[in-house]
Specification:
The complex is a heterodimer. In chain A, 74% of the residues lie in helices and 1% in strands. Chain A is built from 14 helices and two strands, in the order αααααββααααααααα. Chain A has a two-stranded antiparallel ribbon with strand order 1-2. The two termini of chain A are 29 Å apart. The N terminus of chain A is likely disordered. Chain B is an alpha/beta fold. Helices cover 30% and strands 27% of the residues of chain B. Chain B has a six-stranded mixed β-sheet, sandwiched between helices. Chain B has a four-stranded antiparallel β-sheet with strand order 2-1-4-5, covered by helices on one side. A two-stranded antiparallel ribbon of chain B has the order 11-12. In chain B, a hairpin with a 2-residue loop joins strand 1 and strand 2. The longest helix of chain B is centred in the middle third of the chain and has 18 residues. The chains are: A mainly alpha, B alpha/beta. At the A-B interface, helix 1, helix 9 and helix 10 of A face helix 2, strand 6, helix 3 and helix 4 of B.
């Protein structure tokens, strides 16, 4: 990663310590990249037939057997790539939302994105069971996420200013409303739609993800992640309260709107493909802040790597533990995420 | 008055400020002298912090205008204004884990382009600001691990790195112990004397304001009660009328600067006959 700017020279011990911290951040990013690569290879190996890492790597570079190639590239790789993209998107979305709300407990669900996406997806799955699940559902889910997130933004705006606390509260209210509507749909349709798919979707699952889904996700991640990274130094200033950023010449409201659009685009596309995968947008930024500090220039790539590795690992474990039954990835991330947070809060760190 | 004011760094013309139905500043015209240290004093709620925020464009004026070097601040682009004027609000906060160096580098934000990379000049200014505030050796420390005085110096360093000819500060010495207060005021004085930085601040402590300011402005209910040198403004009448205190004002035995020793709350509307009689009292315009 060429992610990090050179530190400013300060004399003596402090300069050495700053340079060391900078080197450490670069090392952490490198280590996270290695971890992700290892999880990726193992994840591809896990399935109805186990494929050992050497064969996986050979196939990935195009030197594997025809059968391996077909299984890996045709079947397993799209699901694995979807997991990586979803994890990175959710984590970076969480980083941005935490910056906007100045609250390290904010996540995509806090601005109503999860609820909105769930409502969109359920509406299609229950009311239009004939629709093609792989295109219509993600589309409806994304629309729901965008509408819910946009509504949260517009409602929290007063005299052109978005108050972070108000945004979080209104997001929670919108989330509650969408959950009620989702349950209303379930009750009214008496579960006549695709019940299996609905349930999978609400828990968050990568079952049966294909190259189509990877292609749906790619543009959002390919635009959203670099855009977030470019805005990193402007985003850093958001942490200094309401007054200091403005007296430093930040176009605060335009910045918040831009970051919110990126965050909703990332989370909306992720949830549209993978369903409501819990805790990634919360845990990944939290872990990374402790690893690399609060600067967004390294926090954003670090969170993307950790989010990707977490979703991928959760999905892999979900497939590997009790085959052929799959534990949905969203269930797994919640099983890992909730205790992590309880532990942090008990320790008084969160 | 219209047209340029060569002597005034920042000024207001018929400034009005309203919060909903409440008028905080009815009609204020003032000039802040270039290259001087000016302090705004007055009771809690007299509008001095509101006025400072309005000068720093953190609050929009309801009427009238704020002029920086004779030009209305309404016309400045955000970064352009931030290159002319730094403002340190009261009790600023930073995210956990942010180091002094990180914070001070934020002061360079208005000087950077969209991509925000550090130039050699940025690094030089940051190093200078750290040195001026004595924070060079603490540059790698996270802010939450500093003492109150060190933290406030780090914030001042950020404002210095902004490299402006005008700095506004809202009660910079609040929450600091006496030694740190003195240290901070001496730092501000040195900046002013050595670099000609114009400093305008809100101060709680009348004696501190008198000791370190060239000009005092006493505010009462959003209007100027008195403006002038500490000798002219810090009088028994001012302390009674603006602060509601009965006090003795004596000359500081070392510096001769007036020193206020309050001894009682002034009774309601008990203006004694000597009002306006004491030397230096400036009547409201």
């Amino acid at each position: 990663m060429t992610a990090t700017a050179m530190p400013t020279v300060a004399p003596g011990r402090a300069a050495a310590a700053l340079a060391a911290a900078q080197r450490r951040r670069v090392l952490v990013l490198g280590a996270l990249l290695v971890v992700l690569a290892v999880v990726l290879v193992l994840s591809i190996g896990v399935g109805a037939v186990w494929i050992d890492p050497a064969r996986v790597v050979r196939s990935l570079v195009g030197a594997g057997t025809a059968v391996d190639q077909k299984i890996i590239v045709g079947l397993r790789l799209p699901r694995v790539l979807a997991a990586v993209l979803i994890g990175a998107a959710l984590a970076v979305s969480g980083v941005l939302l935490q910056a906007i709300t100045r609250n390290s407990l904010a996540s995509p669900s806090v601005v109503g994105v999860n609820g909105g996406a769930g409502l969109g997806a359920l509406a299609v799955l229950s009311l239009a069971p004939g629709a093609t699940a792989n295109t219509a559902v993600p589309l409806a889910a994304f629309a729901g996420a965008a509408v819910a997130g946009g509504a949260a933004y517009l409602l929290s705006r007063r005299q052109g200013i978005v108050n972070p606390g108000r945004l979080a509260l209104i997001g929670v209210a919108i989330g509650g409303l969408t959950m009620a509507l989702i349950q209303l749909i379930i009750v009214l349709t008496l579960m006549q739609g695709d019940v299996q798919a609905s349930l999978r979707w609400l828990t968050g699952s990568l079952w049966g993800r294909t190259w189509d889904n990877v292609l749906q996700l790619t543009p959002w991640v390919a635009v959203g992640l670099p855009a977030a990274w470019i805005l990193a130094s402007a985003t850093d200033i958001l942490g200094l309260g309401d007054d200091v950023p403005r007296s430093l010449g930040s176009r605060l409201e335009a910045l918040k709107l831009g970051l919110l659009v990126i965050a909703i685009g990332l989370a909306g596309s992720a949830v549209a493909v993978g369903g409501s995968i819990a805790f990634i947008g919360l845990v990944a930024p939290h872990v990374c802040r402790r690893l690399v500090g609060p600067g967004h220039r390294t926090l954003i790539p670090a969170a993307a790597l950790v989010g990707a590795a977490l979703v991928l690992a959760a999905d892999t474990l979900g497939r590997a533990i009790v085959p052929p039954t799959e534990i949905p990835v969203g269930l797994f991330t919640a099983l890992i995420g909730a205790p992590y947070f309880l532990l942090q809060i008990r320790r008084g760190i969160a | 008055m219209t047209g340029p004011h060569p002597q005034s760094k920042i000024a207001t013309d018929n400034l009005t400020l309203r919060y909903g139905p409440l008028t905080v500043i009815p009609d204020l015209t003032m000039r802040i002298r270039q290259g001087a240290i000016t302090s705004l004093v007055g009771r809690n709620g007299c509008g001095k912090s509101t006025l400072l925020r309005c000068l720093g464009r953190l609050l929009p004026a309801s009427g009238g205008s704020v002029l920086l070097d004779g030009k209305s601040i309404a016309g400045f682009a955000p970064k352009e204004l931030a290159r002319q004027m730094a403002m340190l609000p009261q009790g600023p906060t930073a995210p956990d884990g942010m180091t002094v160096q990180d914070l001070v580098e934020k002061g360079r934000y208005p000087h950077r382009g969209a991509l925000g990379s550090n130039t050699a000049h940025d690094r030089e200014r940051v190093t200078w600001a750290l040195r001026q505030t004595g924070m060079s050796d603490l540059a790698d420390r996270p802010l939450e691990r500093l003492s109150g005085g060190q933290r406030q110096r780090a914030w001042i360093a950020m404002a210095l790195a902004q490299d402006t000819s005008l700095i506004l500060l809202d009660e910079p010495t609040t929450f600091l112990d006496v030694a740190y207060q003195l240290e901070l005021m001496e730092l501000l004085r040195r900046l002013n004397r050595e670099h000609g930085t114009t400093i305008l601040m809100v101060l709680h402590d009348l004696n501190q304001a008198a000791a370190f300011s060239d000009t005092l402005i006493a505010l009462r209910e959003g209007t100027i009660y008195a403006v002038g040198t500490p000798h002219e403004v810090l009088t028994v009448d001012m302390v009674r009328d603006v602060f509601g205190l009965t006090a003795d004002v004596i000359a500081d035995p070392r510096s001769g600067i007036p020193l206020c020793l309050p001894y009682a709350l002034a009774g309601p509307q008990t203006d004694d006959a000597a009002a306006g009689d004491r030397p230096g009292a400036v009547q409201p315009a």
